[in-house]
Specification:
This protein is mainly alpha-helical and 374 residues long. The protein folds into two domains: 244 residues, no CATH class; 100 residues, abc type-2 transporter like fold (3-Layer(aba) Sandwich), CATH 3.40.1710.10. It contains 14 helices and four strands. A four-stranded mixed beta sheet has the order 2-1-3-4, with helices on one face. Helix 3 links the parallel strand 1 and strand 2. Helix 10 runs antiparallel to helix 13 and helix 13 packs antiparallel against helix 14. The radius of gyration is 28 Å and the shape is elongated.
């Protein structure tokens, strides 16, 4: 009971220390509100209000039909220009796309020829250019096909592909980006807060006070782990309910409590990792440099940005030892597909094993660091 009492009091001390650190508090608040919202809405992967200019040299029914298919929100209303204005508009960045419909275009289409339409793209707008060029090609082909079928006998396809998009029917990228940003922030903030809690003791000289008190390294470490994990878990719960589900209107298919249970196991591993990294750093700048080497691989290779199946098999195998890999699987399965415990229990067990291993290694390193200071 004395151990539990010490862990509880030491954890409360950590929470009070965090409340007296305005910078970390601001970081937590902004991360789970502004950063989650910005990641979901600021840089959409779909085409959005792209500027387009059209040179219509044909002025036919078909060319006008093509012009009328470009409208918000994917495109701004087309600007009709002449051929001489294309280069100036592209050079000044006024237009991302410039479509040139040649003369006699409709006549050539109806006569069975294969006329060409020139599309000029400002590739400095890389994301819009990559998505938009394919989008424009699909629009033009669709309009030409419909026009030809109205003037000739319609041909039926031998195979009709019926597309059904599950879990995100509109293919809205904000549904994906908001939740993935939340999952990444849970990993990042838990490592930062626990590492900062230990370094704060060292910088303020209170670590020596703890060493002469009747508490063990185990009690000190567990106190830091549960207190900082609680802060991240409460902030993540608020963000999931009020920012992701409320403000962004992202539907949550599965159990939020089951996801938070998985997050708790994940936090057990990542907070231990934060303690481990802090034992190697002598100051917050050094700790920040170590974070870069750890956080980036955890985020990029865990499956949150690209599917794990697209990575080399060696990387996939190595990342099975990272808690973030299993947490991403849990998050996507529960929040996107509504999976239950019967589906994600292997990841839960993996997090327990990884967390226990990280905690044991971190505790050994923490004891060694305290012995060296003594």
């Amino acid at each position: 009971m004395q151990t539990v009492h010490n862990i509880l009091n030491l954890g409360i001390k950590e929470l009070r220390s965090l409340l007296r650190d305005p910078m970390l508090l601001v970081l937590v608040v902004l991360a789970f509100t502004v950063m989650v919202y910005a990641a979901a809405t600021a840089a959409p992967e779909t085409l959005h209000k792209a500027t387009i200019a059209i040179v219509d040299e044909d002025r036919s029914q078909l060319s006008q039909s093509i012009v009328n298919t470009f409208y918000p929100p994917y495109f701004m209303l087309p600007v009709m220009i002449t051929q001489s204005e294309v280069d100036r508009g592209m050079n000044t960045g006024r237009y991302t796309f410039a479509l040139n419909i040649p003369s006699s275009f409709q006549r050539d289409v109806l006569s069975g020829r294969s006329p060409e339409i020139q599309l000029s793209v400002d590739a400095t707008q890389m994301q819009q250019a990559f998505t938009g060029s394919g989008h424009i090609q699909a629009i033009v082909i669709g309009e030409v096909t419909d026009f030809v079928q109205r003037h000739h006998a319609a041909t039926s396809l031998l195979v009709d592909l019926a597309l059904r998009a599950r879990f995100n029917p509109a293919l809205n990228p904000s549904w994906f980006m908001g939740l993935m940003e939340l999952i990444n922030l849970i990993t990042t903030l838990s490592i930062i807060l626990t590492g900062a809690a230990l370094l704060r003791e060292r910088e303020h000289g209170t670590i020596e006070h703890l060493m002469v008190m009747p508490v063990t390294p185990f009690e000190i470490m567990v106190a830091k782990v549960w207190s900082m994990a609680l802060v991240v878990l409460v902030a993540a719960s608020f963000s999931l309910i009020f920012i992701v589900k409320g403000l962004l209107s992202v539907p949550i298919e599965g159990s939020i409590l089951l996801f938070l249970a998985g997050a708790t196991l994940h936090l057990f591993a990542t907070t231990s990792m934060g303690i481990f990294l802090a034992t190697f750093a002598r100051s917050m700048p050094q700790f920040g440099m170590l974070l870069i080497l750890v956080i980036l691989p955890l985020q990029i290779l865990s499956g949150g940005m690209t599917p794990r199946e697209s990575m080399p098999e060696l990387v996939q195998t190595l990342m099975l030892g990272a808690p973030s890999t299993h947490f991403v699987i849990i998050g996507q399965a529960i929040l996107y597909r509504g999976a239950g415990l019967s589906v994600v229990w292997p990841q839960f067990i993996a997090l327990v094993l990884i967390g226990t291993s990280f905690f044991a290694v971190s505790l050994a390193r923490f004891r060694k660091t305290l012995s060296a200071m003594a």
